[in-house]
Amino acid sequence: MTFHSSYREIWIDLAKFFSIFLVVLFHTNPNLDGYLFDFLQLLRMPAFFLIAGLLFNMDKWNKFSDFFIHRVKRLLIPYFWFYIIFYALWLLIGRKMVGAEELAINPLLPIKEFIWGRPNIILGPYWFITCLFSMQIIFYFLKKYIHSNLIIILISILGYLACIIWDIKNIPWYIDKALLYMPFYACANTLRTYNHSKFNHKYIVIPLLSIITFFILIIQNQYNISPYINHILYIMAGFCIMPLYIAICKMIAYKLESSKIAGLITYIGEYNIVTLALQNYIIGFIKIAGSIVLGINLLTTSYYSINILITLITIILSIGVAFLINRYMPFIIGKGNISGNKNH
């Protein structure tokens, strides 16, 4: 297995790695709690959308059709293939293994969820993929017809507030969640145009925003506040912690830049779409197999060390699958012959 890292910014892939690690970790045990895990929650999906915003470059696309086809290939084709594969497995094996609860589900319901772009039964983690697709289509037109970054950010904030105030939900293709997370995407994309090195010298900003994040977490934990205010505080905390997150990722990436680990991190970051698809199934397999072999009930374990170990094994196995897909069935992830193509 050959890893390449010279053509990508390592810190971005490192941020992707941390985020996918946290996504998998919280799926090994959704009940992880405490200030540390409240803090880490902020680095899951908000960080993914922020990174996606940093990578969006309007100058690459002369026509909307080119952009649309590219997004279909990189997002919707994996969505289609993984959904078909796991839907077939669910029909043939999964429903019987789980039992009466799954057998009671109408077999056509997952198809409806697939068309609706709101996967839940079959491929729940891929809500991020359909949401990101909707978000990027919306953002493309904002960038095309509105030439002020400030106005775009204001529009994204208004969209977010509209979702909160009117409790907008259950829109096809997770457009509701796209509007909720759009401020992260829009602000991150605006940062592309600024000299990041100037920001790095403002050391007072990062500690200050980190302190604000800490106080927001205290407020959320100590006081009984409405879900709307709680979500607004969550978004605020997510914004505040991002400079520290980026600074740490850049610092670690600088240390790892010439090491072989950088190539592995790049590979994991590039193929996290495979990890998103496989994680729940691999976690379930590890827990069931581990419980049988070791005689330990891994299904309900709350030991952080065990959850971290399961997370690492899940990522390793999913990247192994990604390597096989990339070599033998690249069409599943929307690619042709990848072996000679390094400019993803």
User: What fraction, in percent, of the residue positions are helical?
Assistant: over 70%
Percent of residues in β-strands: under 5%
Mean pLDDT equals 84
Regions with pLDDT < 50 over 5+ consecutive residues?
Answer: 1-7, 195-201, 337-344
Order of helices and strands: HHHHHHHHHHHHHHH
Gyration radius, rounded: 20 Å
The beta-strand count equals 0
- Number of discrete helical segments: 15
| Measured distance between first and last alpha carbons | 17 Å
How would the global form be characterised? Answer: globular
What structural class do the secondary elements suggest? mainly alpha
Q: Specify the oligomeric state.
A: single chain
For the report, how would you describe the main beta sheet?
Answer: none
Topology, pairings included?
Elements: H1 10-28, H2 35-41, H3 45-55, H4 64-98, H5 100-103, H6 109-116, H7 127-145, H8 149-165, H9 175-191, H10 196-200, H11 205-222, H12 227-256, H13 260-270, H14 272-294, H15 304-328
